[in-house]
Structures are given as structure tokens and as C-alpha cells.
Design goal:
Helix content: 25-40%
Oligomer: single chain
Strand content: 15-25%
CATH architecture of the largest domain: 2-Layer Sandwich
Strand order of the largest sheet: 3-4-6-5
CATH class of the largest domain: Alpha Beta
Number of strands: 11
Largest sheet: 4 strands, mixed
């Protein structure tokens, strides 16, 4: 007898049981993969389950894409099917209200979705978040796929070079922030930063969504970039996201979950993805449309990452 089970989190499984299981990790889907799954399986199934005629009800591809980007934000397609089901229920309810004998052939277009699902629930917030210096976009791996996170850094006047960390950061993430600050202080001249600024100011690093615990080393480069941005008073490029562990000497070390992180970045409209040079081989796992639609920049040091995220004004294009 063979037992098959699924789980979003391995941490909740008892170690003794986990040791006796064969783990098969499944990565998240790209937007194109979700479109094909919805068109071939989810839409026909929901139309049938709600008693509608497959030949008369049509959901356009642009409508499916809009549901994927503006009404769901997930690695899989579970919530996508729920939203398609909500559209099918609304069509069925409207059909029931029509006098018998009247033919109906509803076509669901992207512009019609607010009538079916209400206003969009997710918006591209990268531009809004990065509208001031001291904010950088990172990507994180979670049990349910990748997600984008924003790291904020701010200089506090009349301080004594204290470092304040908020946002429910775990011990590893706090150590990454301290390593980033130490490297920036040691390399201030090379980074174009006046050393006395750090001596006379406190530095506050915050990762929003403070109710959610966060940990891991992969936000090191993002935190360092946010700090340098605050010190230089220079905006981080809005189309750049990054991942990578940072060392005390400014080296960028490899991290896990590159596929999930790249998919999350693409969902948020990111077009340039900075990753550790030692993770370059992981790009082979990405779907072709993701590799073609994004620019991937492998870096070995923080200085290389800063050249991408914080370029001089004349080279920002």
C-alpha cells in the first residue's frame, strides 16, 4: 500500500514521520502555466459544476490573466479556481434570473471582472514603496512559494551609531543586518559615504508586515542596499529585486529557492533580478517565458549589486 500526502509546510510534520517519507518538492507555477491550467482544466470544471453550457460560456485569456495578477497571489492555483468558481456562480445566478427561452452566451472579458469579483485585491506596489530613498525590494522563499518583501532603512539624527531592527526579524536575519552595517562602515569611502554620518546617527532597519515573523540570510543584500540608499539619499531602481546572503567582507553567498523567488518577482512586475553568482546554474530551472522576460544579473560582491540597484544618474537607463 502506498500513501500519498500533500503539505504546504514540512515543519509541522513530526520528524520521525518525516524521516520515513520520500519528499517530492513541487515549485510554483508561472503566469503562463497558470493560464494553460485554467483554460484546459479549471474553467471547464467550474462551468460544468455550476450547470452551465460549455459551448455558450467563454472566459477570455485576458480575463484569466487578470484574475491571476489582480485577484490572486499564490504559487499554486487553488485560489485561482475559487475565483473562477465565483465568476461561474455569478453567471449561473444571472442565467436563472433570465426568462426561460431567452438564449444567453456570456463572454467574460478582463474589463468585466469587477462586476463579477469586485475591485482588484492586489496592486503593483513596487513603484509606491520605492518612491523615496532607503527602500529596497527583496524576494523571500516561503513554504507556499516565493514572495516579495520591502526593506526600509532610515537615518535617525542625534544618535550614537546604534542599530534598531524591527519587523519580527529572526536571529539570522538580524545577524545579516549587522554584518551589512559593519561592511558598509568599513567600506564607507569606497561606497561614497561620509564615515562621520554613521558615527552621529542611529540607523533603523524595518521590514514591513510586522505581524509575520521573518528569518533567513537571503535578505542580506537587500538590507545592505536599503542602508546604502538611505545613506546616499539615492532612490533604488523600481524594476530591481535582489536576493543573496552577505558576508562581513561584502561577498554575496548563494541562497535557496531561486525559482520561487524569480516567479514572485515577475508577478510583481520586476524586470531585473540580482542573484548570487553561485546561483546562476539555478536559472536553468526557470520557465522559458520567465528567462526571456527578465534580466538576471549574477553578482559576487555587494558593490556589484549596488551598481545595478543604485547606478549613477547618468547610467540609470
Amino acid at each position: 500500500m502506498l500513501f500519498i500526502a500533500t503539505s504546504n509546510q514540512l515543519g509541522t510534520i513530526h520528524p520521525a514521520l518525516l524521516d520515513r517519507m520520500e519528499i517530492i518538492p513541487l515549485a510554483g507555477y508561472s503566469e503562463e502555466e497558470k493560464l494553460h491550467i485554467a483554460r484546459r482544466y479549471l474553467v471547464p470544471r467550474q462551468i460544468e459544476e455550476h450547470g452551465l453550457d460549455q459551448a455558450k460560456v467563454r472566459v477570455e485569456d485576458d480575463a484569466i490573466r487578470r484574475i491571476v495578477t489582480e485577484y490572486t497571489r499564490e504559487a499554486g492555483v487553488r485560489h485561482l479556481e475559487r475565483q473562477i468558481g465565483a465568476v461561474a456562480r455569478k453567471i449561473a445566478a444571472r442565467a436563472a434570473a433570465v426568462p426561460s427561452g431567452e438564449e444567453q452566451s456570456p463572454i467574460v472579458r478582463a474589463a468585466d471582472l469587477p462586476d463579477y469579483l469586485g475591485p482588484p485585491r492586489f496592486h503593483q506596489e513596487t513603484g509606491f514603496r520605492l518612491s523615496r530613498p532607503g527602500v529596497a525590494t527583496g524576494v523571500a522563499w516561503t513554504e507556499s512559494g516565493g514572495d516579495v518583501l520591502f526593506v526600509e532603512a532610515s537615518l535617525l539624527p542625534s544618535g550614537h551609531h546604534n542599530l534598531i531592527l524591527t519587523g519580527q526579524l529572526g536571529s539570522v536575519m538580524q545577524e545579516s543586518a549587522r554584518a551589512a552595517v559593519s561592511h558598509i562602515r568599513a567600506s564607507a569611502a569606497e561606497l561614497g559615504i561620509a564615515p562621520e554620518i554613521l558615527e552621529s546617527h542611529d540607523l533603523h532597519v524595518h521590514v514591513p508586515a510586522g505581524a509575520i515573523p521573518k528569518d533567513g540570510p537571503s535578505a542580506g543584500v537587500t538590507m545592505a542596499t536599503a542602508i546604502v540608499s538611505a545613506l546616499r539619499k539615492q532612490l533604488v531602481r523600481q524594476d530591481v529585486a535582489m536576493t543573496g546572503e552577505i558576508t562581513l567582507s561584502g561577498l554575496v553567498l548563494p541562497v535557496g529557492g531561486i525559482r520561487e523567488k524569480a516567479l514572485a518577482a515577475r508577478r510583481h512586475g520586476i524586470r531585473t533580478f540580482v542573484l548570487p553568482a553561485q546561483n546562476e546554474a539555478d536559472l536553468a530551472e526557470l520557465p522559458a517565458e520567465v528567462r526571456e522576460g527578465m534580466k538576471f544579473v549574477p553578482v559576487a560582491t555587494l558593490e556589484e549589486a549596488l551598481k545595478v540597484a543604485l547606478p549613477p544618474p547618468h547610467s540609470a537607463a
